[in-house]
Amino acid sequence: MMVTADVRRRLGALMAGVLAVGSLVSCGGGDDGGAAGSDGMSGTLTVFAAASLKDSFQEMAAGFEDRHPGVSVRMSFAGSSDLATQIISGAPADVFAAADEQTMSRVEDEGLAIGTPEVFATNVLTIAVPAGNPANVDSFADLSSRDVATVVCAPQVPCGSAAQELETLTGTQISPVSEESSVTDVLGKVRTGQADAGLVYVTDIAAADGAVDEVPVREAAQLPNRYPIAPLKGGDEELAAVFIDYVIGEEGQRVLSDRGFGEPAG
Amino acid sequence: MSRRSGTAIPRWTFVLAVLGALFILLPLAAMVARVRWSEFGALITSDSSVDALQLSLQTSVTSTVLCVLFGVPMALVLARSRFPGQKVLRALVLLPLVLPPVVGGIALLYTFGRQGLLNSGLEVLGVEIAFSTTAVVLAQTFVALPFLVLSLEGALRSAGGRYEAVASTLGAGPTTVLRRVTLPLVMPGLLSGMVLSFARALGEFGATLTFAGSLQGVTRTLPLEIYLQRETDPDAAVALSLVLVAVAVFVVTLAHRVRDREDRP
After folding, report:
1. Interchain CB distance below 8 Å, B30 and A156
2. Which one of A158, B43, B138, B189 is CB 3.0 to 4.6 Å from A100, fit for a cystine?
């Protein structure tokens, strides 16, 4: 059994390595050979981040590399849950940024996070409708109508559990036509006009660039999704700490708020 | 040709063949090693699991019937007639074999979707495909049809047209020839094509997720259920994967039996 467990870990690490290399290629980032920058910092920092952070973290990686010329940042974006599973099976990452605290706690429970994860952003749910709002959705209560084809995330994924909480809070019972595995799938169904409405995050609306319209849900502000970030065991702790400071700092916060994220305190 | 006794193939091919076989078998073994047998029964008999398995079997059977309905005539036309552009057409209709399923899903979305090409026609007929079980069947048929066409076309070509020619000189009409001569002759090929189509439909994931959505009992087939369970309950995902592997092994064995019969007429 020891052997199989060991093999399993190695396979996991190998797979994660392949993924990380894949994302490195797709980001177009290159290793500059690790030459130390003017501030003496050098090396490669691997960041695993929730899919919803893709645009803002890519912008931050570029800003961080400008500030620390010796450092190259590579990113792997996927559903938080997937990333947590990869980290637990031995994926070599220095920093993990999750879309909710529950997912981060899975990594903490395995003793793989260093210190207490810090919340660096919040996000709230909102209603996305196809451009022009063909089903005339005005409010969250409208989603309970059988005439409105509504798509949500499945309760198993963070955006789905947030949707359930919002239903409880508002006393609205949605009967969705589909429960998707990720918020991007929900957005896709709305974008193509398959669905009349979908529950997504406000940052998804901003990223859709006008392809969908928004019908805000006032109550959603009471249930913000909190995004924690933490350095990981076995990684480059020093570099990880500097990157996390950057995310929490002025420049990182500006990037996040430009993309529609809320402040950590919210 | 080899001086070594026993076999005519070089010994090093065995090494690579064994590595190749391990590459396929090891992941399966790793998955089986992960199954929690104490909870296996409970995991695969939960409401959502049973709904998913039932939906998968029901839609895969329906898709296979549709594959036979359209695939047999397609194979006949491709194997037994000649017309300009036949080669190009053949390559095009077999495209779903090599297309990533998610691409198939996108194509179906823009054909049968609510804002798709055929939308106004479907609306007149009162047919609502979006997020329905029909959408699942369409996605499965789209990816599975080429398997049936390919198997049957091969069988038709290797069977040749001699018996059919004899039957028609004896006065049998084309439909009688098809029913009494051609189809019985290629039955093993047809059966093996059906089994392959069924297996492909059963495993369909990408096109369904893109085109049909995911709702328990309506569109969430077994592969979609596994994908979702994996988020929170890896044990359930592994248990359900094993069920899918078992069904697949059964189907492949069936296909091999049929193929063996075909080899020994």
Report:
1. no
2. A158
Distance CA B71, CA B67 (A): 5
CA distance B159 to B265: 11
* A179–B232 CB contact, under 8 Å: no
Q: Any bridge partners for residue A128, and if so which?
A: A198, A214
Decide if B52 contacts B225 (C-beta within 8 A).
yes
**Tokens coding A257:** 């708020």
Architecture of domain B40-263: Orthogonal Bundle (1.10)
**Which pairing describes strands A95-97 and A43-50: parallel, antiparallel, or unpaired?**
parallel
Q: What are the angstrom distances between the C-alpha of B216 and each of B52, B112, B132, B220?
A: 7, 22, 11, 5
For the segment A87-119, what is each residue's pLDDT rounded down to a tens digit? 998 889 999 999 889 899 999 999 999 999 999
Establish if A161 touches chain B: CB-CB under 8 angstroms. no
Measured between beta carbons, the chain A residues lying within 8 angstroms of B220 are 179
Q: What is the DSSP letter of A219?
A: G
pLDDT at A32 over 50: no
**CA A20 vs CA A23, A57, A91: distances in Å:** 5, 15, 9
Q: What is the ipTM of this complex?
A: 0.76
Instruction: Show residues of chain A in contact with B103, CB under 8 Å.
Output: none
B37-86 pLDDT per residue, tens = 999 999 999 999 999 999 999 999 999 999 999 999 999 999 988 899 89
Q: In what order do the strands lie in the sheet with A150-153?
A: A178-180, A150-153, A197-201, A125-130, A212-215
The percent helix, strand, coil of chain B (3-state, each to 5) is 80, 0, 20
What CA–CA distances, in Å, run from A60 to A39, A256, A257, A266, B97?
18, 9, 12, 21, 41
- The pLDDT assigned to B264 comes to 57
Give the integer Cα–Cα distance in Å for A71 and B210.
38
Contact between B213 and A181 using a beta-carbon 8 Å cutoff = no
A156 in contact with B, Cβ within 8 Å:
yes
Q: Taking CA B100 as the corner, what is the angle to CA B98 and CA B106, rounded to the nearest 5 degrees? A: 125
Residue type, B34: R
Q: Note whether A194 contacts B213, CB cutoff 8 Å.
A: yes
Residue type, A263: E
Pair B222, B241: CB distance under 8 Å: no
Record: contact A194-B216, CB cut-off 8 A: no
**Shortest Cα–Cα distance, A1 to chain B (Å):** 10
Residue in B33, B115, B215 closest to A178 by CB = B215
- Any idea where the domains of chain B sit in the sequence? 40-263
Q: Are residues B71 and B63 in contact, defined by beta-carbon separation less than 8 angstroms?
A: no
